[in-house]
Each structure stands twice: as structure tokens, then as C-alpha cells.
Amino acid sequence: MNNKYLLKTSLLTGLALIAFAANSVLCRLALGNGAIDASSFTVIRLVSGAIALFIILSIKGSNQGVSSKGSWTAGLMLFLYAITFSYAYLSVDTGTGALILFGSVQITMIMLSLISGTRLHLIEWSGVFIAFTGFIYLMLPNITTPSINGFILMTVAGISWGIYTLKGRSSKNPLMDTTYNFLRTIPFVALLAVFSMQNISYSTEGIVLALISGAITSGVGYTIWYIALGGLSSTQAAVIQLSVPVIAAIGGVVFVSEIITIRLVISATVVLSGILMVVLGKYYFTLKNRKLKT
Questions:
Q1: From the centroid of its chain, how far is CA 19?
Q2: 164-173 pLDDT, tens per residue?
Q3: Is 202 helix (H, G, I), strand (E, B) or coil?
Q4: Around 241, how many Cα atoms within 13 Å sit in the side-chain half-sphere?
């Protein structure tokens, strides 16, 4: 039973991470090529995500499982993440943007977990350190240096996403929570649409990319992530997301013609090694505590 649960969590986590990386690539494709403006991309992304999830929830039925409707805090964090994420990608490339984003996510989630009383074992701290070392290594000058505005915006996006993720760890009905979180972004989206109306710029390609990002890699992807969080500790969820820059950078190479480097390969190896230490370390000490109790 435990092995099946572990396998399910691993599979869902992997799918969610791919969705996160896909969002970075889709956003970069849309905004980097000028196919759509940042505000319109955000509006379409969140609205299409809300519609897709509402349809899925209606088909599945809301009477299955615990009734739960997210929160305004989560909705606000989701909107803040989405808007800063879009504007940041006007000035940073796919891999660098994902690195700043998930580096901020990791720091935010670990710090908030420590404040709430969570304590890490030495092997977990070592894994965090190693993974973050790989993150820093990839950020060194040989990689594209982001603008200060892009850096700040992506950092805010990372902090917002970290808080949104922590809110999801207590979700009893991930699909319903995610749906209502998306629906709660609509008032903020409406204000954004009004204030950015004069600067609208879009193409069919940009709209399609925003729709895919919203309905599939965000709406469905974030629901999968909320489900996966039930089997992850806060630290595991934080550190595991550091693999997204690697996936996103590879996606950038394939879809955006960005360059793969030896630095990326080395960084990927270091980051994944650190993640493995955190995941296995937590698993080992959990089993050890169970044996002691029995």
C-alpha cells in the first residue's frame, strides 16, 4: 500500500513538474516572440484555466469527497504569481527565469516551514544545500544575466507561488480548491484588463499559447500539484521544484532554440542529487520513526 502511494505521488509530482516547465516555455514563446502582450497573456491564462476547471468540476460532480472552496489568500497569490511571471518573461530567458522563480519558491517554503516549527535532519539540510549549490552554479555569469526588473518580478512570482503551494498542502479536495482559487482571480483579472486595455497586442499564436498555458498546464497542472502535495513534506515540495529550471531549460533548447551548455548539465546533476538526498532522507527517517513506535 505504501509503495503504491509512493508511486502515485512520484507520478503526479513528475506530471506537475513537467506542467510547470511547460508554462515557462509557453510563456517565453508567447512573450519573447511578441505574439501577445503580458497582460493579455495573463488574462487569457487565468480565465481559460477557471473555465476549464469549472467544466471539469461540473462533469465530475462536486459531491465527491470533502467540499472545499479554496481561499481568497490562495486566489490572490495565484493572480500575483501569474501577472509577475508574465511580465518577468519579457526580459529573462526560459532557464534563467525558471531558476529565479523556483529558487525563490524554495527559500520561501523552507523559511515558512521552519517558522511553523518544522525541523530538518542533517541529510535533508545537506540535500537542500547541494540542490541550491547547483541552482547558484547555473546562475553564474556564463548564463544570461536577467534585468533587475525581471529579477524582482520573478522573485515576487516565486514568493507568491511558494505561499500558494503551502496553502495547497492542507487541501482535502484539490480539484475544487484549485477551481475556486482560479475563479477568485477573476475580479483581479477584470481590473488588469481595464487598466491594460490601451496596450493590448495579440496574435492567433499568442492566444493559443495562452489558452494551452491556462487550461492545461496551469488549470490541470496545478490540480495535479495540489493532489501530489498530500504525499510531500513542505521541504520536499520546495526542493523538488528546483528540478523545474532544468526541465524548462531543456524545453527552451528544444522549442525556443536556446543553447544547452556543460554548465546546465553539471547543474542538473547537482540539483537532482540534492533533491534525491532530501526525498530519501525524509523517507528514511519516517520509516525509522515508525519502527521505533512499534
A1: 8
A2: 999 998 888 9
A3: strand
A4: 31
CA distances from 52 to 47, 182, 204, 256 (A): 9, 10, 19, 27
Q: What is the mean pLDDT of residues 176-185?
A: 95
- The whole-angstrom separation of Cα 129 and Cα 134 is 9
Task: Give the residue with greater pLDDT, 286 vs 156.
Answer: 156
What is the C-alpha to C-alpha distance for residues 44 and 120, in angstroms, rounded to an integer?
A: 40
pLDDT band at residue 1 under the 50/70/90 scheme:
very low
Answer yes or no: are the C-beta atoms of 158 and 105 closer than 8 Å. Answer: yes
What residues contact 147, with CB distance under 8 A and at least 6 apart?
91, 92
Spatial CB neighbours of 115, under 8 Å, sequence gap ≥ 6: none
Place of cell 470533502: 66
More confident residue, 119 or 228: 228
**Beta-bridge partners for 202:** 36
What is the pTM assigned to this prediction? 0.83
